UniProtKB/TrEMBL annotation:
Pathway: Purine metabolism; 7-cyano-7-deazaguanine biosynthesis
EC number per UniProt: 6.3.4.20
Catalytic activity: 7-carboxy-7-carbaguanine + NH4(+) + 2 ATP = 7-cyano-7-carbaguanine + 2 AMP + 2 diphosphate + 2 H(+)
Described purpose of this protein according to its UniProt entry: Catalyzes the ATP-dependent conversion of 7-carboxy-7-deazaguanine (CDG) to 7-cyano-7-deazaguanine (preQ(0)).
Note on cofactor: Binds 1 zinc ion per subunit.
Keywords: ATP-binding, Ligase, Metal-binding, Nucleotide-binding, Plasmid, Queuosine biosynthesis, Zinc
InterPro entries on file: QueC, Rossmann-like_a/b/a_fold
Name under which the protein is recorded: 7-cyano-7-deazaguanine synthase
Residues at which ATP binds: 14-24
Length: 222
């Protein structure tokens, strides 16, 4: 007989960046317990794992790091290889070289396996189709597809929550402000591809997206 699903708990795919950290505090208000799950896939800026660990410790969230080192062997890219520089823009008609083939598919698969062992069916991820940097595995159609596939594969009704799916970066900053954690997100998270906490390097695509979103947030909502 299948165990009763605990809908008061959730598993959050957590990088320690702006989006997933905003969702950490969103989830803490929505669920009785949040379990954060990070992945070590050989990323150059592995400081993000320490950042994720520090945030979870500081704000009393259970945290686990799973070893996904094989991913960097299968899909070498600018986030995992020191000899590949991050492109400032994606090539015309192509994907940015910071795209890691299969990353979100693998992360959501392992997060769902992890969740099922604890009778949890809510898995939260910070993907956004509005500000998705050209990554195909951040689209709503992919999330709907993987949710169906995982539920069928494990005969278990998963819910993949994507609260940021239709929000741009300015609206994500507003969510942090509404949650009362704007300063935490601004100063304690790591989004930068070059591994610099807070405002980052200011030059990589992730930093520019984050900064432009903050400027727009201040203009529209403050």
């Amino acid at each position: 007989m299948q165990n009763i699903i605990d809908k008061d708990r959730c598993v959050l795919v957590f990088s320690g960046g702006q989006d997933s950290s905003t969702l950490l505090f969103w989830a803490k208000k929505k669920f009785k317990e949040v379990i954060a799950l990070s992945f070590n896939y050989g990323q150059k800026h592995d400081l993000e794992l320490q950042c994720a660990k520090d945030i979870c410790k500081k704000y009393d969230v259970e945290h686990h790091i799973l070893d996904m080192g094989l991913l960097s062997q299968l899909a070498p890219n600018a986030l995992t290889r020191t000899d590949i520089k991050v492109d400032k823009e994606a090539p015309e008609g192509g994907l940015p070289n910071t795209f890691v083939d299969g990353r979100n598919m693998i992360f959501l698969t392992f997060a769902s396996i992890f969740a099922k062992q604890r009778n949890i069916n809510h898995v939260i991820t910070g993907v956004s189709q509005s500000d998705f940097s050209g990554y195909p595995d951040c689209r709503d159609i992919f999330i709907k597809s993987i949710s169906t596939t995982l539920s069928l594969a494990m005969d278990y009704q998963f819910v993949i929550d994507t609260p940021l799916m239709w929000l741009d970066k300015a609206e994500t900053w507003k969510m942090a402000d509404d949650l009362g954690v704007l300063d935490i997100i601004k100063n304690e998270t790591l989004t930068c591809y070059n591994g610099i906490i807070g405002n980052g390097c200011g030059e990589c695509p992730a930093c520019k997206l984050r900064k432009n979103g903050y400027v727009e947030f201040k203009r529209k909502f403050k």
